[in-house]
Amino acid sequence: MALLSHGSFSGAAIFRHAATRAPLRSPIRVVIRAVQSAENEKKVADTKEEQKPPPAAAVKPKKPVYSMKKGQIVRVDKEKYLNSVNYLSVGHPPFYKGLDYIYEDRGEVLDLRIFETGEYALIAWVGIPTAPAWLPTEMLILSDKLDYERI
């Protein structure tokens, strides 16, 4: 810790000096208003009415249109899935052709979303203990009937 000598400059002297001064007074404000003639007021009002855009109704964002509905039964098209970016990006071994249950068993659409890369569906396979998966809707095949019993 540095010690200040008695003769060194100290900031306390500045504050003592500033405290002895009289506080500054705020300047007096004078308000001057311009007076317009009645003709000028009418012209200004007319131009303001012409410039106003018509009031627009509150525009609601459009609901997205999905190719499927929640609760529909689907299965995955094997050829489309094996050639998709979703499958190729994982880096499976060459002999691995995916899990058979996504091609053979029926999955239920839990949710639909439109992402930047397209429309995706959250698919859950009933009776198979696995987590739901987001898959593009273009590789899903709609199924007409429910082939399994719900648990």
UniProtKB/TrEMBL annotation:
Residue ranges with Basic and acidic residues bias: 41-52
What does UniProt give as the signal peptide span? none
Protein's name in the database: NADH dehydrogenase-like complex O
InterPro entries in alphabetical order: NdhO (IPR020905)
In this chain, the stretch annotated as Disordered covers 41-61
Give UniProt keywords alphabetically: Membrane, NAD, NADP, Plastoquinone, Quinone, Translocase
Lineage of this protein's species? Eukaryota, Viridiplantae, Streptophyta, Embryophyta, Tracheophyta
* One term under GO cellular component: plasma membrane
